[in-house]
């Protein structure tokens, strides 16, 4: 859900030029970390992926404002005006992966992906799985090690990260449309969006515009699960990622996911995973 409407005048927004970035100018790709400090409103003449790796952020883009939780992957297109602010004045860390247009389209072509399908429509974002978070973290560590030892090869790793980011967003944004009716795809996209983590079955029934029995029948037909089962799977996957790679308290995680009580969250988690959230984190 949008937090508020934002206003901006592009005539007074700074443009970040890839010609001022050595890696982008030389290799067509670059990578860096950004910690805590808010960014100013700006736009680029290149593509940028950012991943929220710690905390949550307020993201203002093209006049809309959203709160993005940890492990959100977001694509920023050339000419998108945006800025990132730590949510609730808490610290946050995100990684930035950038590519000039030629490199971005070349990687899309290598993956047999039409870049227009990936970049058209609304902003492209997705929540990463545990394995996906681990991939980007390890690749970032490899880049840091090469840089520390003054060794070459970082551009190759960045291209691997770029390929993975493009593939993840393409799967999230496009693949389901090949399988489901448009209205059902939009419902699934909403359920998987960072802003809808606390949803329940009643919220989904409203999204679809059908009665609960009809929505349940559609979910069974297209996903093999009931609405409640599908929502629970999305929430438990997010919980596993957070417990594995963050120090968020289990109570706070329970609140983010919309559970009525900590005991309820513990019970649902154990039913799905086999152990309690505390035991999962310890393991």
Report on this structure.
This protein has twelve helices and eleven strands. It is of the alpha+beta class and 283 residues long. The strands form three sheets. The chain has a five-stranded antiparallel beta sheet. A hairpin with a 2-residue loop joins strand 6 and strand 7. The N terminus is likely disordered.
Write the layout of secondary structure elements.
Layout: E1 4-5, E2 14-16, H1 22-27, E3 29-35, E4 42-44, E5 47-54, E6 57-61, E7 64-68, E8 72-76, E9 82-86, E10 93-99, H2 101-110, H3 115-119, E11 125-127, H4 130-148, H5 154-173, H6 182-192, H7 201-208, H8 212-223, H9 227-245, H10 250-256, H11 262-273, H12 277-282
Parallel strand pairs: 2-4
Antiparallel strand pairs: 1-7, 3-10, 5-8, 5-10, 6-7, 6-9, 8-11
Helix pairs in contact: 4-5, 9-11
- What is the CA-based Rg, rounded? 20 Å
Average pLDDT figure? 87
The H-and-E topology, N to C, reads as: EEHEEEEEEEEHHEHHHHHHHHH
> Roughly what percent helix?
40-55%
| Structural class estimated from helices and strands | alpha+beta
Number of strands: 11
Biggest beta-sheet profile: 5 strands, antiparallel
Order of strands, main sheet, comes to 3-10-5-8-11
Distance between the termini: 34 Å
Count the helices. How many? 12
Low-confidence stretches: 1-7
Shape: globular
What share of the residues does DSSP label as strand, in percent? 15-25%
């Amino acid at each position: 859900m949008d937090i508020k409407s934002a206003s901006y005048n592009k005539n007074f927004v700074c443009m970040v030029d890839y010609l001022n970035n050595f890696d982008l100018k030389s290799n067509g790709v670059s990578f860096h970390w950004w910690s805590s400090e808010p960014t100013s409103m700006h736009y680029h003449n290149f593509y940028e992926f950012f991943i929220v790796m710690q905390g949550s952020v307020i993201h203002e883009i093209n006049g809309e404002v959203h709160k993005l939780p940890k492990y959100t992957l977001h694509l920023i297109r050339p000419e998108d005006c945006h800025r990132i602010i730590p949510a609730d004045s808490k610290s946050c860390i995100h990684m930035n992966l950038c590519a000039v247009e030629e490199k971005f389209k070349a990687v899309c072509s290598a993956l047999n992906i039409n870049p227009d399908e990936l970049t058209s429509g609304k902003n492209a974002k997705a929540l990463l799985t545990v394995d996906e978070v681990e991939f980007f973290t390890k690749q970032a560590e490899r880049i840091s090690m090469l840089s520390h030892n003054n060794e070459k090869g970082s551009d190759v790793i960045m291209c691997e990260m770029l390929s993975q980011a493009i593939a993840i967003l393409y799967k999230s944004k496009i693949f389901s449309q090949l399988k489901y009716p448009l209205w059902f795809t939009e419902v699934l996209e909403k359920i998987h969006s960072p802003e809808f983590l606390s949803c329940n079955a009643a919220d989904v029934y409203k999204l679809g515009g059908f009665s609960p029995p009809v929505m349940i029948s559609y979910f069974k037909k297209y996903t093999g699960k009931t609405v409640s089962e599908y929502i629970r799977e999305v929430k438990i996957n997010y919980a596993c990622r957070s417990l594995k790679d963050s120090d968020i308290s289990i109570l706070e995680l329970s609140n983010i996911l919309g559970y009525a009580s900590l005991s309820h969250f513990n019970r649902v988690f154990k039913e799905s995973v086999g152990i309690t959230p505390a035991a999962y984190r310890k393991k």
